[in-house]
Write a structure and sequence with these properties.
The protein has 489 residues and is an alpha+beta fold. Helix content is 54%, strand content 10%.
Length: 489
């Protein structure tokens, strides 16, 4: 007897019979009576007899298809009655007849006019209703219009029972719940974690670029001691910046106006030198202040100092001005780093934009590093590495969600500047930043407690270790980001 297949609805029990042609009449009469007896058993619904017209000369072949209610009915028959029913044929015809039974589970049934015979456009499964039974896609798929796509998006946002809101609310206010539910298998109600992380991070970086070039406020400097540094200045001009360096005002001047008595008149070359330095300051207000300071310093500087400044400004990224110490293994990269330095000095905003655009790439290195740290911290927990990675993804998705909210309020404050609404948005933004700065560390601690289920003291110790490791990994990946961006310019 062949293997019995599992049922997916009705079951077909097939019996192939073969007999000598000399006993055809007697065999067919017995077969009809035999089928009638079999149909008396529970679960048998009908039977159909097929004749093989291409039988070998001297033999006849019959195939009987029994239809049963389910697999359980067939199992009962095979266990309790099949051998006895088989013996009736052996006793009657002996070696003149033989049978080969097998069973098949019904997979699909087609009735003309009632069931679609089309295939799913997504997975190719035969459609038996309005939705595919295999992947769930609708049977009718239309080419979406722009309005249709917008309506679907707005439907997800405005429908408070959608997976979007069922995911964002616990992500924001119930630390660790999403990770806990996902690991317990409760996943259908929430947006998949990696998809949610990608959506929130893309939305964050997209909103950040709406305010202009995110690298426009970045300044790259090479100081007189051979070091290099980056400075990030506020895009709207920090009017308090540099006040400590502001020369004292003289009588008869107002605040913000600086009158400097130069020891000597600057030469044309020195004025050009001042222009070269000042144009690197991104803020217009600070440019005027920096110009007055530079003129005062150069006016009183010795010829040797002026010559040193000229030499550095002539090639600030050369070997005489910038010190590069990256070890013996990095000597091959030093010329490329100096070339990158010159590109940055000549066009810092472009470097800033490239740096900003490479941050998502850095995150795809940073997140696995943090997950590896957590894996080591919880070695005895019996959890797989990917479970710790899931925890990290959820935490940083929350971080991007908070950053997105703060960035949105700040953008509104910028777009409504010098209005009452702008002041209100500015105040709300300040409050959000303060609350977020306090909530982020608590969120991580609470999520660790909920997901890993350890006591307060043990969690605090691991929390502290994780904080140090987080900072170290951030510095390492940040430096790697700078080198990668500089070398890829």
């Amino acid at each position: 007897m062949s293997e019995i297949l599992p049922s997916a609805g009705k079951v077909v029990y097939e019996v192939d019979l073969e007999a000598d042609a000399a006993i055809e009449a007697q065999f067919d009469t017995w077969l009809r009576d035999h089928i009638a007896d079999v149909l008396q058993f529970p679960g048998f619904l009908s039977a159909e007899v097929l004749a093989d017209t291409a039988s070998v000369h001297g033999t006849i072949r019959r195939t009987v298809h029994y239809r049963l209610r389910d697999q359980a009915a067939l199992d009962d028959y095979l266990r309790d009655h099949a051998s006895r029913m088989h013996e009736t044929g052996v006793m009657r015809f002996g070696a003149q007849a033989s049978e080969r039974p097998r069973s098949m589970a019904q997979r699909e049934e087609f009735i003309r006019g009632k069931v679609s015979t089309e295939n799913c456009l997504n997975c190719g499964e035969v459609l038996t209703g309005q939705h595919c039974s295999h992947c769930g896609q609708r049977a009718t798929v239309k080419v979406l219009s722009l309005w249709g796509m917008t309506r679907d998006l707005l439907g997800d946002i405005t429908n408070f029972d959608s997976r979007l809101w069922r995911t964002l609310l616990p992500l924001a206010f119930r630390p660790g719940v999403l990770t806990q539910d996902y690991l317990r298998g409760r996943r259908a109600s929430y947006t998949p974690p990696f998809r949610m992380y990608l959506i929130l991070s893309v939305a964050f970086f997209l909103l950040a670029t709406l305010g202009g070039n995110p690298g426009a406020d970045l300044t790259f400097n090479v100081d007189g001691k051979g070091g290099a540094n980056f400075q990030l200045s506020p895009g709207d001009g920090d009017k308090n910046a540099g006040k400590d360096a502001e020369p004292p005002t003289q009588a008869g001047t107002t605040a913000g106006e600086v009158t400097v008595r130069l020891p000597r008149e600057l030469t044309a070359e020195e004025k050009a030198l001042v222009d070269t330095i000042v144009k690197r300051v991104p803020d217009k207000v600070e440019q005027a202040r920096a110009r007055k300071e530079m003129e005062a310093k150069l006016g009183s500087a010795s010829p040797e100092n002026v010559a040193a400044v000229k030499k550095m400004l002539k090639d600030p990224c050369g070997t005489d001005s910038l010190k590069v110490n990256i070890g013996a293994f990095g000597t091959d990269y030093e010329p490329r780093l100096r070339d990158a330095c010159r590109k940055i000095m000549s066009d810092t905003p472009t470097f800033g934009r490239a740096l900003f655009e490479n941050i998502p790439k850095m995150m795809f290195v940073f997140l696995p590093l943090i997950a590896a740290v957590i894996y080591v911290l919880y070695l005895g927990s019996g959890r797989y590495y990917v479970e710790h990675l899931l925890f990290v993804v959820h935490y940083h998705a929350f971080f991007f969600l908070g950053g997105l909210l703060i960035l949105l309020v700040e953008r509104l404050a910028t777009w409504t500047r010098d209005t009452t609404a702008g002041s209100v948005f500015g105040g709300i933004g300040g409050i959000l930043i303060a609350v977020f700065a306090l909530y982020v560390p608590y969120y991580l601690y609470r999520a660790m407690r909920r997901v890993y289920g350890q006591g307060r003291i043990v969690t605090l110790i691991k929390y502290s270790i994780l904080g140090v490791a987080y900072f170290v990994c951030l510095v390492i990946t940040g430096l790697a980001l700078l080198f990668y961006t500089a070398l890829s310019l």
